[in-house]
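Target protein
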Amino acid sequence: EDLMFAFSVFDPGDSGYAHRAELKDHLTMIGDPLDEEEAEDLLSLVETNARGEINYKAMIKEVLHREGWLENGIQPQATKHPPSATPSRAETPSRANTPSRADTPAKK
């Protein structure tokens, strides 16, 4: 689920496709970057279409399959996260029902 969300940043239309070159740039520069060969190996798991895009959902599924995670009952799920990773006010739990420190019994 986290992988699907991470890659969905490159897919604002939620088509399941993202530009290969853009993905490669990010995979080799951001976070714990892959080297060029690792990025190519990952991106070559699926075909690049005529528009230079790859099906990142299929790529993630293939990686999970190769790692044995799908056989162990873990299934990738597409999620619909809001454009911002920050929850909206409606999604944020209310503090009204949260006990304050004064209401919480002291540990003994």
